[in-house]
Amino acid sequence: MFELHKDGSVHYQTAYSSRFANDKVEAETESFTILADGIVLNKTELQGNAPHGKTLFDYYKHCYDTPKAIKQLIGPFTAVVYNKEKGNGIAFGNQTGDASVFYGYNKENGTLYLSNNFNAVFEGCRPCGINERAAHYLLTYGFIVDDSTIADGIYRLQAGKLLRFDTNGVKVEQYHRFNFHDKIDLTMDEAIEKLDVLFRKAVKRCFDKDLEYGYHQHLADMSAGLDSRMTNVVAKDLGYTNIVNISYSQSNSDEQKIAQQVSLSLGNPLYHRSLDDATFIYDMKESIHEEYGVAYAYGFTGGRQFLRLIDFDKLGLEHTGQIGDVVISQFFPKTTPFQDYNVKRMSGVLKQRFPLKADDFVTNEEFAFYTRAFQGALSTHYIRAQYTYAVSPFLDPELLEFCASLPDEIRASHRLYWNWIDRKYPSFGKIPSSRKRQYKGMGLNEAIKLYTGKIIYKTKRKSRKIAYRLGLTAHRESRNDMNPHQYWYDTNEKLRNFIANYYQKNQYLVAGQGQLETECRTMFESQSAFDKLLCISLLETINVYFNKKGN
């Protein structure tokens, strides 16, 4: 926590994890105070080619004069750099927003609080009320889509932004922005070659950080999709051994079976956490507190429960495939100007009361990345950081910049993704995946098989819903999905009772809150289990931060 008082005096205290200690900074000179947390994956690269000094302290000091230098840092990092002589400073997180700085004023004493821990800033800024805009976003998007937080007057620095501050106030600036509209001209073959070089470089940065700190066993997620698969495949191909895989899903689902098949083919041990009991839903208070209330409580499903059991004295980073699906492919099939802030919401029940500004985004793709990807999918990194740092090669800015520049006809519909796997790692493209191939470029037999499979899937899904309405089956959705919320709700009486009882007991938390109270009731009365979960997750977020009774 960094505090700038109204009289210009400064106070700070840190509570850094002892893990990856040499990547953190807590230092003062006559002129500067610099605090930096997290890790810098390319630290050795910067130190080997740094005209401004060999230490991270020197580099962060350089960033004060040259903010554009921040974008050369890679990893989940945050920093505060304060110039004592000038009485001002800058604070910043990384380019993808999974490491952020929160800030706010205590109105009673005029103190500015800065920290990468929202909970610390919240304690410093009290009293503060509920931010209705943020609460509404939690009910519609499932995460807070702008720079607000659940606490009115406390803000989060978004991806690629920095905060300039002094006793006169604060100002937010952009030091980096990914470009999703200017495209380069190249062939599929050229794109595959460049992608492979950049991805292998990104994987090496991640796994080398483990070795730098003496962790010779690597922890890596494994799922039924392509993203964690390719992180593991390329790591193994680069010569990293002793990789331990973890997964969590419904037992005997395709998610579990495919993850096991990939791990077995790589020779990696796989530890699986069954989600059949759905007990992570009961842990929402702890999840919300560790995730700072920036997203609904269930995005990490069983991940938090799993990480709590791991001995991190022996394992380093958590290697994931986070957002790889949309980095190498796209959110949308075509690059179009930004026009619809309602896309990529997790629930469409409520009308959006707080639309975002159209001039904040150039394309729909940019909107989806800076909201759904960076502030939605990556919000679980706050929880993961309580145990270790989560990294993904797909978050490497150099790789992300390249993929964003590719023409639609190469990147969209996973064309590049599948062509890359088939060309460079063909045996792993033959293992089934939850990410199905598109028809283009397939042989006739493959296309017929895929088309038939889709028809069968849709028919089964429709039949289940009809059977459920007729009372012939206990559930309307498949247990085979990665996160089958509706299946859990339909088949688990204890869970249904928990959700109903929680709402009845805690709906008073939004009593008298006008439209927010009505919206919570509407969400709870929805037929969708996920809408009900969004409702009680918001109520618990309010309970965690604003209910002094602590129910």
Extended strand count: 16
State Rg: 24 Å
Structural class: alpha+beta
Helix content: 25-40%
- Output mean pLDDT: 92
Give the biggest beta sheet: 6 strands, antiparallel
Distance between the termini: 28 Å
Share of residues in strands: 5-15%
Q: What do you see in this structure?
A:
The chain is an alpha+beta fold and 551 residues long. 40% of the residues lie in helices and 14% in strands. The protein contains 21 helices and 16 strands. The strands form three sheets. A six-stranded antiparallel sheet has the order 3-4-5-6-10-11, with helices on one face. Helix 5 runs antiparallel to helix 13. The longest helix is centred in the C-terminal third of the chain and has 26 residues. The radius of gyration is 24 Å and the shape is globular.
Key structural traits:
single chain; 551 residues; alpha+beta; 6-stranded antiparallel sheet; 40% helix
Break the fold down into its secondary structure elements and pairings.
Layout: E1 2-4, E2 10-12, E3 25-28, E4 32-38, H1 43-48, H2 56-65, E5 77-83, E6 88-92, E7 102-106, E8 111-115, H3 118-125, H4 132-140, E9 154-156, E10 161-166, E11 169-174, H5 188-212, E12 217-221, H6 227-237, E13 243-249, H7 254-266, E14 270-274, H8 284-291, H9 303-307, E15 315-319, H10 324-328, H11 364-376, H12 380-384, E16 390-391, H13 397-404, H14 408-411, H15 415-424, H16 426-429, H17 444-469, H18 485-491, H19 493-506, H20 515-524, H21 529-546
Parallel strand pairs: 12-13, 12-15, 13-14, 15-16
Antiparallel strand pairs: 1-2, 1-8, 3-4, 4-5, 5-6, 6-10, 7-8, 7-9, 10-11
Helix pairs in contact: 4-20, 4-21, 5-13, 5-15, 6-7, 8-21, 19-21, 20-21
